Amino acid sequence: MAKPQAEQSVFWLGSFTALTFIVAIFATGIAPSVNPHLNGDFADEDHYHASYQEVGGHLVQVSSEHLIPGEPVYGYNELQERGRLVYQREGCVYCHSQQIRPLDSEMLRYRIGSSVAPASDEREYIYDQPHFLGTKRNGPDLDRVGGKYSDDWQYSHLYNPAQMVPGSIMPAFTWLFVNKNPADPSYIPVPTQDAVALVAYLQTLGAGRQVYDPTLNGGKGGWRPWLKLQDALTSESFSENRVNEAPVPVKVVGGERASSPVLMQ
Amino acid sequence: MAVQQIMQMPEPAAPDRIHHSDEASKWFLTTSLIGLVVFGSLGLITAIKFVFPPFLAYISWLSWPRVRPSHVQGVIFGWLIPVAYSMFFYMIPRLCGTKLYSEKLGKIACVIWTTGVIIGTTSLLNPAGGDHAAGTLNLWLMTKGKEYEDYDVVSNVFLTVGVLLVAFNTFRTIASRRYRQIYVALWYAMATVMWTALVYVIGNWPGQAIESTFGIKAAFSGTNDANVNWFYGHSVVGLVATPGAIALAYYFIPKAANAPLYSHKLSIIGFWTLGAIYFWNGAHHLIYGPIPYWLQTIATIFSFLLFIPVTAAVVNFLGTVRGEWHQLRYNVPLKFFVAGVIMYFLVSSQGSFMALRQVSGTVHFTDHTIGHSHLALFGFATMFSYGAILYAAPRMWRRPLYSEGIAEWSFWLSLIGVIIYVISMTISGFYQGILWQDPTIPFINTVTAMVPFWHARAGGGAMMVIGMILMAFNIYKTATSPAPTDDKTLSASGTAVAASAN
User: Fold this and answer.
1) CB distance B334 to B257 below 8 Å
2) Angle formed at CA A129 by CA A127 and CA A133, multiple of 5 degrees
3) Fewer CB atoms < 10 Å away: N or C end of chain A?
4) Closest CA to A203 of A191, A211, A195
5) What percent of chain A is modeled with pLDDT above 70?
């Protein structure tokens, strides 16, 4: 009987495909996740991402064997974890991606001062569950936003985005703030614990990222944070305001930071 | 053994006239039409917020980033999937020459599914506060924060049980069929429920359920999470919405056009290539992203291979309508289907090219993607569902369609609306992508430059929503109008005509 054989072979083919698929899911998805550090090892061979670095005002290509730093530190403390939850609940991911693609225009657009934003690396996301890579940029990418603005700027922007960035279509997250005295016209909205946590999380984005700098160690090369010291200092209060333990009153100060001279000629 | 049993089945005799009660089908159709209007309107709110941000702002649960996922998830799980199930429960018994295995089970599945959608939408809007009015941070009750799998874990339980019940009902009905051959629409229907269960569990359960239960960062994190997310996200479109809509087309296009299927062999080629290729496409949502280069390349290649199933289906559908084009003047269900077929080809070709690195580098993250997804889920899947509903609803309720004119209006509003929508978004995507290539242009300037396109999009979206309301109203009036008293039969376009002498 020819026909039953054909149907049986289809059955076995289907079963085999399903089995292969389950094994593949396990091997590519589950197994590497059990040990997060395996991620980095897996990445070695195909590590094309951060292959461009800024050296002396120019983008140069760096060979891939230089791209494995020591122990990456991308974990979150309790406050920052809560910030991630707020980010998740408020749906920030639907407008803001968290990935710098290895395109010149993108690495320059999201620079801070003269520090060119390095393209994203899979190790930056090891502790991200859920991931916030995003698919749509109604607003700018946030993967290198940590340290770009002060906490005060972030609070003011969350409370009234159009005030800080004229023309912004970002919704005002007023429910993240408590108005201490609504009757008083000169009231100061105070960020809730949610807002504090959210800003604490935003300030971690990209903060652990290191880049390879061939000019370090007397020309032998070495690793340094992607955000150079002078740029970190120019971005006011970068170090002091990284983690906030208590609510900070909102001060509306300044506008967007004056942009630094464009790096690429 | 099962195979021998199949072989021993008698060749089909003309079945006795079976009275299909279509109860489960009616229930699913009702809930899906409500979902269509509700979640379509949420989409319109989203579009209006783009051109007028203060619209419904300052209310946490109506803010843009909470309404937007409610719209996306709602349209898929509250409209496209239930309406596909409704039409499955209509066509499967008819194609099998038997009654549905259990109408009661179908109704239970409908209640469970709808409960899941309501719970899920609530979790996305997140109106109830824990500490304060901003909403809860409980992992069990809030959004998962990943596109297409945003619904919370509780809702996932309901939706998983719902799809399993529908699958059980489907397979039991087909197992007790009276014809030996399984028509391709049944293949697609079985595949839809099976693949829905498969990708839904893989996409939703391992990551979130373990973390919610044990509080550990389990299963997937980081880029693995993103990869599984997009395996699932693309499968929802490719292995749930697409085969569901194609199953409807394979049954309803020959029915509506009153013409035989063009090629059965082509339909089988299309079926197996669809199943083999679509699973591999997820990573093309992460082109240039922090995932391995080879994975992106695989996704690009398989995106192009999609031309095989797409062309097979499109050629088959248009070949079926061949020689029947004159019916497009008056046959509204056929109009919906032909428009849908053309947009299916357009959207699939567009998708293949968007997976190229060069194209993706420009249009990724822009409105281009939004236009693409609406061309797929509205222009293709929803148009097919409209056509199927207009054909099936009069037969389910055994009444003539309430108004051909309203059906025409909903067709032209939907068609022109989606064309305006997609063209404006496609241009805006290219425009914004090109602006982004110059890093000296401040980001906000690339946003404000899109405002004219967003006005056009809101206009097109409003037309689509009016079309939805008219469609739901038409079916509602059809179902509730008094039953015809004299002996009448229904023509292909759903109008009542006097029965010819027999």
Assistant:
1) yes
2) 95
3) C
4) A195
5) 61
- What span, in angstroms and rounded, lies between the C-alpha atoms of B23 and B32? 14
This complex has an ipTM of 0.90
Instruction: Report the gap between the CA of B258 and the closest CA in chain A (Å).
Output: 31
- Residue B223: name the closest of A233, A127, A61, A171 by CA: A127
Q: What is the rounded average pLDDT of the residues B136-160?
A: 88
Is residue B238 scored above 80 in pLDDT? yes
Regarding predicted confidence, which is higher, A1 or B347? B347
Instruction: Say if B132 is an interface residue toward chain A (CB within 8 Å).
Output: yes
**Given phi > 0 = left and psi -120 to 50 = alpha, else beta, which region is B91?**
alpha
3 state SS for A151-208:
HHHHHHHHHCHHHHCCCCCCCCCHHHEEECCCCCCCCCEEECHHHHHHHHHHCCCCCC
What is this structure's pTM?
0.84
* Shortest CA gap B440–chain A (Å): 7
Q: Of B365, B437, B453, which to mutate for an interface test with A (greatest number of A Cβ within 10 Å)? A: B365
Could you tell me if B81 and B116 are in contact, meaning their C-beta atoms sit under 8 angstroms apart? Answer: no
Which amino acid would we find at residue B47?
Answer: A
pLDDT tens readout for residues A59-94: 544 444 444 444 445 678 888 889 999 999 999 999
Measured CA to CA, the distance from residue B356 to residue B493 in angstroms comes to 42
Q: Which amino acid is at B431?
A: Y
Chain B residue with CA closest to A256: the answer is B442
- List the Cα angle A205/B120/B24 in 5-degree steps: 150
Q: How far apart are CA B332 and CA B401, in angstroms?
A: 11
Cα dihedral B139, B142, B146, B149 sign: positive
- Tally of residues, chain B: 502
Residues A129, B222: C-beta atoms closer than 8 Å: yes
- List the structure tokens of B301: 């290649």
Q: For residue B151, what is the nearest residue in chain A, using CA coordinates?
A: A89
pLDDT band at B389 (very low <50, low <70, confident <90, very high): very high
Q: Which CATH architecture fits B323-502? A: Up-down Bundle (1.20)
> Mean pLDDT throughout B41-57?
93
Nearest CA in chain A to B279: A21
Amino acid at B393: A
Average confidence (pLDDT) over B15-22: 78
Q: Does B439 touch chain A (CB under 8 A)?
A: yes
Q: Nearest CA to CA, how far is B221 from chain A (Å)?
A: 5
Highest mean predicted confidence (pLDDT) among B85-94, B145-154, B355-364: B85-94
Q: Count of residues for chain A? A: 265
Q: CB B222 to CB A3 under 8 A?
A: no
- Chain A, nearest residue to B210 by Cα: A129
Tokens of B403: 């108004």
Three-class SS state of A54 = strand
The predicted-structure confidence for A101-128, as pLDDT tens digits, reads as follows 988 888 888 888 778 888 888 778 877 8
Give B-chain residues touching A260 at CB under 8 angstroms: none
pLDDT at A6: 54
**How does DSSP classify residue B431?**
H
pLDDT band at B213 (very low <50, low <70, confident <90, very high): low
Q: Give the tens place of pLDDT for each residue, B448-480.
A: 999 999 999 999 999 999 999 999 999 999 999
Contact A91 B57 (CB under 8 A): no
Are residues B170 and B92 in contact, defined by beta-carbon separation less than 8 angstroms? Answer: yes
